[in-house]
Amino acid sequence: xxxxxxxxxxxxxxxxxxxxxxxxxxxxxxxxxxxxxxxxxxxxxxxxxxxxxxxxxxxxxxxxxxxxxxxxxxxxxxxxxxxxxxxxxxxxxxxxxxxxxxxxxxxxxxxxxxxxxxxxxxxxxxxxxxxxxxxxxxxxxxxxxxxxxxxxxxxxxxxxxxxxxxxxxxxxxx
Length: 174
Fold this sequence. Notes:
- The protein has one domain (38-169).
- It is built from 2 helices and 8 strands.
- It has helices at residues 24-31, 108-117; strands at 44-58, 62-71, 81-87, 90-92, 96-97, 100-102, 133-142, 157-169.
- A hairpin with a 3-residue loop joins β1 and β2.
- The protein is globular and about 45 Å long.
């Protein structure tokens, strides 16, 4: 696995310790800050390497798995962090970096995992499988919001649309 950056990647939720804020005023101040800075990458196919994973509850009730990758393709976007967001069935334990989750066999995370590493064994999806491999991924720009309204150019951001295949590296078995 790549060395974790000193600060969290820009597409990961802030805070690694999962500790609640000490006071109500601090919680209010944190609530007014964006979860993540927006990262823009030119749309296209890139080679990426796994950096970390986290779980989160977005929009107050939607459990998500967030896989963070670093672009390793040479070019102007080299070294930028981008994320792949998956819906999951439910979270196990507190959301945060390295969190546990449950998934459905019809979910995107399961299907993409099978496409990359074949069907998971009895242990389920292992994040260690993503380590030491380079993956080809399609990265796109989010230019409309949830209501299909156009997002202004300065507020547009990039995300991983799909993980295509393992390009190189040793795939760990389950």
